[in-house]
């Protein structure tokens, strides 16, 4: 059974929001293996730090160990060849798409031919920040210091939901960008402590999210 989480990701010190943690704990029961899909395939030290932690960052792996029985953790980056990477995906119960640069992540996945395997994957998929953005059929990048204009781009098509992670309703620029760009594209603003859980046709929102459609916004709080 495929279950997808779209979220901004855990706090680097405190981990996942309590409600998200409880949802994940229930869904991760019985899972034993997980593969991290990075956004910077050549930044080995950065990937290891974010996954394993250091003195300042706890590490995503440690947060997941607190709420699951996962024993095997693989990292999909340029340290592994395509054959090994494909085996990682096929043998995993859980895939975790890390945050970072969404365009580098998409490029890495497509150039190595992992996109088809990822679409066929039938386990649990966790998307954090850029990783969650890339799971959409149509993905959305809200303008920031790196890009002076918001844009839509082709995602992996694992879900039809387009999100704006790290959404802050009090950030006027981010709010107005979502409002303007929702004319023709539905955008879901997902704050740091919120998530969207998708299981087949069932979509549930963990904590408050914001739905932008045709230049209007609705608050979703289930």
TrEMBL record:
| Top-level division of the source organism's lineage | Bacteria
One of the entry's Gene Ontology molecular-function terms is: serine-type peptidase activity
The record ties this protein, via InterPro entries, to:
Class_I_gatase-like, Peptidase_S51
Q: Which UniProt keywords apply?
A: Glutamine amidotransferase, Hydrolase, Protease, Serine protease
In its keyword annotation, does this UniProt entry include Protease?
yes
What is one Gene Ontology biological process annotated in the Swiss-Prot or TrEMBL record?
Answer: proteolysis
Q: Which family does it belong to?
A: Belongs to the peptidase S51 family.
Identification of the protein by name:
Type 1 glutamine amidotransferase-like domain-containing protein
Q: Which organism is it from?
A: Candidatus Coprosoma intestinipullorum
């Amino acid at each position: 059974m495929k279950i997808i989480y779209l979220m901004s990701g855990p706090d680097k010190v405190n981990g996942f929001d309590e409600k998200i943690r409880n949802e994940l704990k229930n869904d991760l029961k019985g899972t034993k293996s997980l593969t991290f899909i990075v956004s910077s395939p050549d930044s080995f030290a950065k990937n290891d730090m974010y996954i394993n932690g250091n003195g300042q960052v706890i590490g995503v792996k440690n947060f997941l160990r607190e709420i699951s029985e996962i024993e095997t953790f693989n990292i999909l980056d340029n340290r592994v060849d395509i054959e090994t990477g494909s085996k990682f995906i096929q043998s995993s119960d859980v895939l975790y798409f890390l945050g970072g640069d969404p365009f580098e992540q998409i490029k890495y996945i497509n150039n190595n031919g992992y996109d088809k395997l990822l679409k066929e994957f039938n386990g649990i998929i966790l998307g954090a920040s850029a990783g969650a953005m890339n799971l959409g059929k149509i993905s959305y990048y809200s303008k920031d210091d790196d890009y002076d204009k918001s844009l839509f781009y082709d995602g992996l098509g694992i879900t039809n939901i387009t999100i704006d992670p790290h959404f802050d309703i009090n950030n006027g620029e981010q709010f107005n960008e979502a409002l303007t760009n929702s004319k023709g594209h539905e955008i879901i603003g997902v704050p740091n402590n919120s998530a969207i859980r998708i299981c087949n046709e069932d979509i549930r929102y963990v904590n408050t999210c914001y739905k932008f459609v045709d230049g209007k916004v609705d608050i979703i709080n289930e």
